Amino acid sequence: MTDNLIHKIAISLIPGIGSVTAKSLIAYTGSAEQVFREKEKALRLIPGVGSILAKNIINSEVMSRAGKEVEFLQKNQVNALFYLDDDYPQRLLGCTDAPVILYVKGNPPLNCTKVISIVGTRHATEYGKNLVDHFISTLAERGYRTLIVSGLAYGIDIQSHKSALRTGLPTVAVMGHGLETVYPSLHTAIAKEMTENQGGLVSDFLSNSPIDRTNFLRRNRIIAGLSDATIVVESAKKGGALVTAEIANSYNRDVFAFPGRVGDPYSEGCHFLIKSNRAVLIESVNDLEYVMNWSATQSQPDAIQPCLFYDFSADEKLIVDLLRTEGETPIDLICIKTALPMNKVSPTLLNLEFAGIVKGLPGKVFKAI
């Protein structure tokens, strides 16, 4: 088991091999371990590899570093989730650049029914902090067991984690470095409290990775990918929150932004997202419920009765069989597991909804009825 994990970590360390190529290598060879056993000639024939990357794989000296990482994981009670594991975040699987390995400290419910990210400026005003606290409090009061995702940074991020802890909602921080430390160190106590209260810390960086600004921008893709929706609360014209919103849009996830006061520099980013139709204007949980269809799925009966006799097309049967086997499944994962493109899956699901055979849930998740 340990040897297997070493190979899974090692493949992510090969120079020039990103997550997309790593997944392709594993798909063609059958396992991470087999990648390192293949001959150079066979590796060159894999699409996207070629002679240079094949040589990198054959000549790579990554096993030692991967072995040290496994020792760190065991010593510090950190879990490593491989992208083919059942407990890997299912929403991330729909993101082409999702990491091959995700490191997790604590026991956060990464695959729970409702997951939202809340991000914003590090220079949060009292207005922004109060918005976050009231919003999360309302979620808890209405009985939504929602995982709150953010980045543990100063400002809006840390307020999101604190409010979630105060109201009893699980919360997870996506880090821009390894899990041997907490940055900023001022938030160490909050991070510990999160891991002890059904939340935790997540990272795709090895232990002792340098704390660098570009790493924090890179981790934003995980914040967006873990969630059904990203909510921006206060942001300047430029900043990490806008990057996260842009990534969320590219993943076909819902994006919301709270409006602020005209002329306030930390409202300009939110106003830009709203004006450019990159985000839906949000003022309260009511708006989230409306767009995500949360209240409707809780209180309304199914309006459409399923057809008793339905002539399935090949694509429809493929999707329905998947949903009956897997249960609630995000649309991105449906595309992956059926090998059908989005432009076929989306209208097919719509037809099946009209027929009363499948039901749409919040966050573009579907289930068979």
For the structure shown, list the relevant keywords.
Rossmann fold, DNA polymerase, domain 1, 14% strand, alpha/beta, Arc Repressor Mutant, subunit A, 369 residues, three-stranded antiparallel beta sheet, 18 helices, nine-stranded mixed beta sheet, single chain, globular, 3 domains
The biggest sheet, with number of strands, parallel, antiparallel or mixed sense and barrel status, is:
9 strands, mixed
Q: Class of the largest domain in CATH?
A: Alpha Beta
Shape summary: globular
Poorly predicted segments = 296-308
Number of domains: 3
In total, the number of strands is 12
Strand order of the largest sheet: 1-2-6-5-4-3-7-8-9
Question: End-to-end span in angstroms?
Answer: 39 Å
Mean pLDDT: 89
From the structure provided, what is the oligomeric state, counting identical versus distinct chains? Answer: single chain
Secondary structure class reads alpha/beta
Order of helices and strands: HHHHHHEHEEHEHEHEHEHEHEHHHEHHEE
If you had to describe this structure to a student in words, what would you say it looks like?
By secondary structure, the protein is α/β, with parallel strands linked by helices. It has 3 domains: 2-62, DNA polymerase, domain 1, CATH 1.10.150.20; 105-296, Rossmann fold, CATH 3.40.50.450; 314-368, Arc Repressor Mutant, subunit A (Orthogonal Bundle), CATH 1.10.10.10. It is 47% helix and 14% strand. The chain contains 18 helices and 12 strands. The protein has helices at 2-11, 19-29, 32-35, 40-44, 50-59, 63-76, 90-93, 126-141, 156-167, 188-195, 213-225, 240-250, 268-275, 285-292, 294-299, 314-326, 331-338, 342-354, and strands at residues 78-82, 101-106, 114-120, 146-150, 171-174, 200-203, 229-233, 254-257, 280-281, 329-330, 358-361, 365-368. The strands form 2 sheets. The protein has a 9-stranded mixed sheet, with helices on both faces. The chain is globular. Residues 296-308 have low confidence and may be disordered.
